[in-house]
Design a protein that fits this description.
seven-stranded mixed β-sheet, 7 helices, five-stranded parallel β-sheet, binds flavin-adenine dinucleotide, binds NADP nicotinamide-adenine-dinucleotide phosphate, elongated, FAD/NAD(P)-binding domain
Length: about 325
């Protein structure tokens, strides 16, 4: 018989959105359970320096910030559970989530804060070399490429930060971008262009990750010029794909209104989803801002929206009685 954990407020996800919802939910007496998933602390645990989260004059570390957020949530009464949810039943309240070992979590309200996951180029050669030269997280895997030539693919904040980060390990970092201008913030671009160990290849797309060596690993990238179609080989041993993220909403397809890109739709100015009692916050519902502080802000909103929803339900139930 699988175990069942019941609570008034069930939170799915333990990034800044889920943990902020947990802090507010616990302080409102909703005894939240946070199902952490396979990435406790969320995306910020894959980065190093964070210098735009308010409240810290000095540069702080992403994993440290998330440990502090979790400690604060636990301190005020939230309970963390390590599990990965494979099924969601939103057809009636209490809502039910099922973990991959069969454990059932039920909540009178559900806050979804599943964030986003790294996108891949979806080339067969990329799949073949994942973990053997091809990665989507320089801050996680960069250390393994100490003294080697590496490339980072993408033109947003993540790509630029990963390229800068890789200069800690490599003297030859190449940023590959499909267009002739970056979408990363100006301050990051300035640092990138000023760095002597980084060069940028414009208008290039990866055609193939080239395998070689014994044991087999990445030995190069075949790059296609996006203007001329010409193919050139770049010799590298590490290739970091940093082309953005997709919302983690697979569980909710057909159960909640999602937009064309798969993000959870919420009523403007709220975190209310298309199912009453289900709220969404953070990167899973925000494709515009996608910052730790905005995720935390919408996490707070979700807890407040959830608290009001429960109060209204309870008021209606007592009036009916
Ligand atoms: P996430 O942080 O993505 O957390 C999602 C959570 O949901 C995880 O805990 C995961 O385990 C859980 N989950 C997902 N699916 C399931 C499931 N099926 N079952 C159980 N749990 C599940 N922002 C900044 O403001 N400043 C920065 O300096 C900065 N640097 C960044 C650097 C990198 C490399 C990256 C990738 C992002 C960076 N960001 C930065 C963006 C920031 O990390 C995100 O905006 C923020 O983490 C979003 O928070 P979230 O809580 O919505 O989701
Ligand atoms: P992003 O802003 O969506 O940028 C993705 C980049 O990858 C774009 O330059 C895009 O090219 C390129 N790209 C997308 N698909 C591609 C493909 N198939 N082939 C080649 N290139 C492709 O994603 P992100 O950089 O991960 O940032 C996500 C969010 O997190 C943003 O809101 C960002 O501000 C935030 N973030 C913030 C920080 C920070 O504040 N320090 C750090 C990291 C991330 P085009 O430009 O041509 O579209």
């Amino acid at each position: 018989m699988p175990a069942t954990h019941s609570t008034r407020m069930l939170i799915l996800g333990s990034g800044p959105a889920g943990l902020s919802a947990a802090i507010y939910g616990a302080r409102a007496g909703m005894a939240p359970i946070v199902v952490q998933g396979i990435q406790p602390g969320g995306q910020l645990t894959t980065t190093t320096d964070v210098e735009n989260y308010p409240g810290f004059r000095d540069v702080i570390q992403g994993p440290w910030l998330m440990e502090e957020m979790q400690a604060q949530a636990e301190h005020v009464g939230a309970r963390m559970v390590w599990d990965h949810i494979v099924e969601a039943d939103l057809s009636r309240r209490p809502f039910r989530l099922i973990g991959d070992g069969g454990t059932v979590y039920s909540g009178d309200v559900l806050v979804i804060a599943t964030g986003a996951q790294a996108k891949w180029l979806n080339l067969p050669s990329e799949e073949h070399l994942k973990g053997r030269g091809v990665s989507a997280c320089a801050t996680c895997d960069g250390f393994f490429y100490r003294g080697k030539k590496v490339a980072v693919i993408g033109g947003g904040n993540t790509a630029v930060e990963e390229a800068l980060y890789m200069t800690n390990h490599s003297h030859e970092v190449t940023l590959i971008h499909r267009r002739d201008s970056l979408r990363a913030e100006k301050i990051l671009q300035d640092r990138l262009f000023a760095h002597p160990n980084i060069r940028v290849l414009w208008n290039k797309a990866v055609d193939r990750f080239v395998a070689g060596g014994d044991p087999e690993g990445l030995v190069g990238l075949d790059l296609r010029d996006t203007k001329t179609g010409e193919i050139d080989r770049l010799e590298v041993e590490g290739g970091f794909v940093a082309i953005g993220h997709s919302p983690a909403t697979e569980l909710f397809k057909g159960k909640l209104a999602l937009d064309a890109d798969g993000y959870i739709e919420v009523e403007t100015g709220t975190t209310r989803t298309s199912v009453a009692g289900v709220f969404a916050c953070g990167d899973v519902m925000d494709k515009v801002y996608r910052q730790a502080v905005t995720a935390a802000g919408t996490g707070c909103m979700a807890a407040l929206d959830a608290e009001r929803f429960l109060a209204e339900m309870e008021f209606e139930a007592s009036a009916a009685a």
